[in-house]
Amino acid sequence: MFKILQKSFKTGIVTATYPKTAARVSENFRGRPEFDFERWRDARPAAEVCPTGAIAVSDDGASAEVDYGLCVFCGQCAEVSRDGAVRVTREFELAATDRRDLVVSATHAKTIGRKLDENIRRVLGRSLAIRQVDAGSCNGCELEIVALNNPVHDIERFGIHFVASPRHADMLLVTGPVTRNMELALRKTYDATPDPKLVVAVGACGISGGIFGTNYATRGGVDQVIPVDVYIPGCPPRPEALLHGILLAVGRLARSGNPRRP
Ligand code: SF4
Predict the structure, then answer these.
(1) Amino acid 108: pLDDT
(2) What are the 10-residue block averages of pLDDT along the chain, 262 residues in total?
(3) Separation of 17 CA from ligand 1 center, angstroms?
(4) Is 52's C-beta closer than 6 angstroms to any atom of ligand 1?
(5) Which residues contact 98 (CB under 8 A, 6 or more apart)?
(6) 56 CB less than 6 Å from ligand 1?
């Protein structure tokens, strides 16, 4: 007992202060790739190497569209873009309430995100119970979600905790491309969660099917099966990105960090 206390005093407080202060991100962390559409003369090489088809390009290569909901942040587009128009940043606060907000293009057409119901935010904003649903993920997202409960990220300091039953939950945190085997289970879990409820799609797979896409075995994203309130890009999203998306969902953060935001 004495040794435990001694160690605790020696270690001090390890809990990160994010989101009050900026997150400490490793030099090597790969976040959102940034695209300078004006300088980007030919997007075809990037589109060819992109493993998830996140870059759609016109025949002459002059105009392109990038979907962050498909992006796995591999950085290959930056490597092949010799004009320096693509750069890998360390940005991770990318959660959005509208799927269309995750798509950027040369025209940057504006879309207005679906406003989360203010009543839901008022009811759930101060204390939140989350049921995590693995709808066929590789468990990469789960590893990051588990980290939310460690002493460094300590999500309980926000009054947010994970529960075992959807009947006790306010929010479903769903990972994976939604395999056909999990589709019914996801629908039933959604129906079992009492109103008002929120659904957050986690990672490239949860948003769009990611590297798996839509095929004989997967539905291609959570919103193909149940309504989604917030999308958190990443492959997998780091714990701070998850925290950002969850707090955004319950209205405890300004809608910041959106790639489309001017
Ligand atoms: S960083 Fe994203 S957009 Fe670029 S090649 Fe990788 S998956 Fe595609």
Answers:
(1) 39
(2) 84 87 90 88 89 87 86 93 89 92 68 49 75 96 96 90 94 97 97 93 96 94 95 96 91 50 34
(3) 30
(4) yes
(5) 111, 112, 113, 114
(6) no
Asked if residue 75 has its Cβ within 6 Å of ligand 1, the reply is yes
Q: Is 207 in the pocket of ligand 1 (CB under 6 A)?
A: no
So what's the pLDDT on residue 262? Answer: 31
Q: Residue of the nearest CA to atom 7 in ligand 1?
A: 71
Atom of ligand 1 nearest to the CA of 72: 7
Pocket test of ligand 1: the residue of 48, 70, 72 to mutate, having most ligand atoms within 8 Å of its CB, is 72
Expressed in angstroms and rounded, the spacing between residue 80 Cα and the centre of ligand 1 is 11
Instruction: Determine the distance separating the centroid of ligand 1 and the alpha carbon of 71, expressed in angstroms.
Output: 5
Residue-level pLDDT at 19: 87
